[in-house]
């Protein structure tokens, strides 16, 4: 096999606020992978235990030439870049990929990540192409002066308005007006549902820009400091569920609604659970939640892995306690 140099590898950065559909977009891109290419996927997780790679591996064919790696525990930039660079460098050496995809945490500083990937350390190794930021037109006023979200959309080379299947007519009007008001009319904005993005949208070079503070777009509904209030907790176990799908769905909906009453709508939950019949993917953000069922033979070799991850505007101890109580109800906690 010929030696493949690590030079000018096409690289794509996907960003967007929590729950906007980044992982769905990443899966859609992976499904467009040319069979002759080797891809490396790096996922930056805010929570201490990675979740997205586990969920994606369940849905990617086991013979696909895709290698996943994670950087858990916070935004890469807030971690002084070191864990991110270590994970990226290791992934590049191990896979020598034809293409790199990076999913940033929903609380990431996209502009800083963009500068890192185009800086001197990676200038000859990576070829950063169009940075894609996903938005939800229904949330435009909600995140009005949220500095992370503003930075994400301003650093983007193209925007993707996801979840159009649940938009109302006014959401499309608000999206167009927002682009004009925010000075983003020159950025392509693609309308999709279920994260169905196209790889071709990312094939242009990333636009270089000065490192500047995000500019407020319009009057806030969330305070600019609210991002610092987000905390995360997770539970990992190897004890399978004994509940049926119906029992799991009822337990999850009751628990999630209780937490919304306690913590408000700024909450995101992801879980991967399995019994002897199937593997279940649970995802919720705000008022939206879904449960997907995968046959065990289509799930990853880690089919007995149970993991739940919660990110919310609440004290970390409170999140962990609520999560532990639910895991006890589900019967998945490992025996001490």
Automatic annotation (TrEMBL):
Coiled-coil residue windows: none
SUPFAM superfamilies, per database record: P-loop containing nucleoside triphosphate hydrolases
InterPro entries: CobW/HypB/UreG_nucleotide-bd, P-loop_NTPase, Zinc-reg_GTPase_activator
Residue ranges of every copy of the CobW/HypB/UreG nucleotide-binding domain listed in the record: 10-176
GO cellular component, one term: cytoplasm
Listed PANTHER family: COBW-RELATED (PTHR13748), ZINC CHAPERONE YEIR (PTHR13748:SF46)
Name of the protein this chain belongs to: GTPase, G3E family
Origin species: Allopseudospirillum japonicum
């Amino acid at each position: 096999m010929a030696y493949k140099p690590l030079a000018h590898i096409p690289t794509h950065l996907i960003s967007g606020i929590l729950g906007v559909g980044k992982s769905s977009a990443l899966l859609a891109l992976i499904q467009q992978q040319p069979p002759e290419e080797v891809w490396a996927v790096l996922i930056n997780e805010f929570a201490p235990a990675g979740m997205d790679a586990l969920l994606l591996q369940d849905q990617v064919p086991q013979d696909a030439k895709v290698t996943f790696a994670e950087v858990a525990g916070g935004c890469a930039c807030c971690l002084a870049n070191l864990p991110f660079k270590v994970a990226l460098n290791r992934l590049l050496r191990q896979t020598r990929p034809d293409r790199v995809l990076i999913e940033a945490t929903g609380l990431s500083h996209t502009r800083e990540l963009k500068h890192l990937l185009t800086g001197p350390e990676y200038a000859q190794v990576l070829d950063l192409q169009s940075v894609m930021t996903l938005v939800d037109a229904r949330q435009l006023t909600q995140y009005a002066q949220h500095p992370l979200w503003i930075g994400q959309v301003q650093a983007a080379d193209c925007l993707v308005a996801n979840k159009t299947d649940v938009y109302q007519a006014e959401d499309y009007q608000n999206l167009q007006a927002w682009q004009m008001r925010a000075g983003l009319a020159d950025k392509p904005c693609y309308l999709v549902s279920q994260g169905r993005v196209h790889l071709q949208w990312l094939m242009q070079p990333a636009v270089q820009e000065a490192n500047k503070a995000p500019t407020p777009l319009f009057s806030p509904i969330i305070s600019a400091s609210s991002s610092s209030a987000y905390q995360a907790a997770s539970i990992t176990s190897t004890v399978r569920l004994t509940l049926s799908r119906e029992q799991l769905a009822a337990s999850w909906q009751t628990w999630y609604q209780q937490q919304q009453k306690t913590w408000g709508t700024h909450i995101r939950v992801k879980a991967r659970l399995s019994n002897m019949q199937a593997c279940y993917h649970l995802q919720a953000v705000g008022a939206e939640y879904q449960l997907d069922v995968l046959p065990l033979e289509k799930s990853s070799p880690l089919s007995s892995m149970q993991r739940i991850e919660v990110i919310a505007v609440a004290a970390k101890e409170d999140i962990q306690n609520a999560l532990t109580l639910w895991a006890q109800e589900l019967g998945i906690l490992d025996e001490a």
